[in-house]
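Entry 14. Two folds queued back to back today. First construct below, sequence then structure tokens.
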Amino acid sequence: MATETAINPSSPTPSPIQHQSSPMESEINPAAPPSQPETNLPELRNLRTILDRKVYTNKFPAKITVKEQLQILAEIKGALKESELELFRRSCFGHFLDLDAGWTEGGKTGKRNTFAGQYVHFLMLRRMPTKKKRELWFLVEGNPARFSIDEFAIVTGLVCTSKPFLALEEKVKLKDRIQDEYFKCTTQIKVDDIQKAFRSLCDKEEGGKKKAEKEKDLTTDRVKITLLYFLEGVLLSADPKRNVSTFHMSMVDDLDMFNSYPWGTVVYDTTVDSLRGKDMAEKYLECLRKPPHKQLPDVKETYTLYGFPFTFQVSFS
């Protein structure tokens, strides 16, 4: 959680993810001179939230669902061979393998650390208005607290620089080998299809005279499909029935290009768009428009978050 140092000078809480350092470009994290504070930050003299405080003090229950599946990481660890895990570890997502088992498998207690929906909802009700399009601000115990790409990069260790020009997307769209080889009968590839391909490849063994050569190619493809599975199933936490981007499918066939791409920016934008799109004030009014017997606090509102909202929770922990 980032707060104004003049209000709350406490140091940031360490992340449970042992992340890699990520370069931050100046246009993403501009440094304002100390003598000239940014004018588009929440007004400190008149702190207010988008939703009237009377609403959340009188309770506004809700149920949050997420598509994020951290247990996929445990599946990856159990399915890949040592040589394949080493290739994955050298990728842009490799540092996630060091995530404590308690977050993916349950650890010694057998109970996995899960998404704290009510805690996140508590923060969502306290969101503050701001002119910054790529940041979210919240009023927590009278102090303004920020969630931006800076905090996201610290928690995840992903590269969060600017996205390259569209010319790159046009270039990689020419590469469709992965799609042609592993998804021949599928015109619209979904996350479920990526999962099936991953499990099928992990069970496959090559034979014949050129076994060693084929196995090497198969090993590389296993890692490529694994990277795609992790990206779509964990970081972007897409709906299993949603179509997977053909750009992502093409990009993963070039590991050098894939590993240097700023996936952190892609994931952050998806996460913030999902959080920003939840209009708590409108949802509250919807509750009031319901018949009396279905109004608060008896009936909980429900909404779904996409992207990697787990980092949002960790940032405020």
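Second construct, same run, same settings:
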Amino acid sequence: MAEDNAVTLYSNASVITDAKKNTFSIKVGMAQMLRGGAAVEVTSLDQAKIAESAGACCVIVSDPRRTGISRMPDPSLIKEIKQALSIPVMAKVRVGHFVEAQILESIGVDYIDESEVTGVADENHFINKHNFGTTFVCGCRDLGEALRRVREGSAMIRTQGDLTGSGNIVDTVRNVRKVMGEIRVLNNMDDDEVFAFSKRIVAPYDIVAQTKQMGRLPVVHFAAGGIVTPADAALMMQLGCDGVFLGQEIFDSVDPYKRVRAIVQAVRNYNDPLELAQVSSGLEDAVAGLNINENRVERFGAGDAY
């Protein structure tokens, strides 16, 4: 069982929870600091200041949207943001690109997001995150993928939904429900069945056993993709997530401060409908830039049937 800010690892039939001997426990403790918050993706210093003033728990510095391949953000921008802000700074790297991660660690980022949203540098290998002292975040779409990333050293999991910035939350809801549903199935299994389950989802048995023991993912679990309203954020929290990621599209609105502030309040008060109604009031203009137009609508029947 995990202690306050430490995660239990099963290795050679021994349990490790001593943070002095297990640096992974320290990374998990770093990730715990973000629980109950909203992390906001930014591409400039001005956006980072807006996110901080609105109450974001962390800013995620990313490469400005452009045609072609997205890469690690400019290190000079990250340094500028770190000097100006008092909240933690996260930056994105491409999947498998350990040199980008080395660069970010050298300039002192607080968290590194190995992001499939940014791009893939290595199709067959993720970064060995145990080789780094910085806390890593990785994405997933199901329980097996999440636990494989934890085995590689990710101390925080981001269940990923929409990657296009359309403001459509349906993929995020589907993937979060899938992860939570698989955990509930695991919790109801006999211990003898866990071996077969871990094989079926292609995840390490020891981490699967720990997940069953804890009744949840063994690390902090955020949701990302399509979260653009306070109700979206509260939905993710009520489904069992520890917090939310807000994408670059959050700044497409007329008043991004107002919208980020409302979402931060929704995350903190996700079980209070009256508070949610209050923070959701007057946001129609603030989300006007995110309304789905004809070109961004996927017709029913075009894909898999419900």
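Quick look at the second one. The longest strand covers residues 111-120. Confidence is low (pLDDT under 50) at residues 1-21, 294-303.
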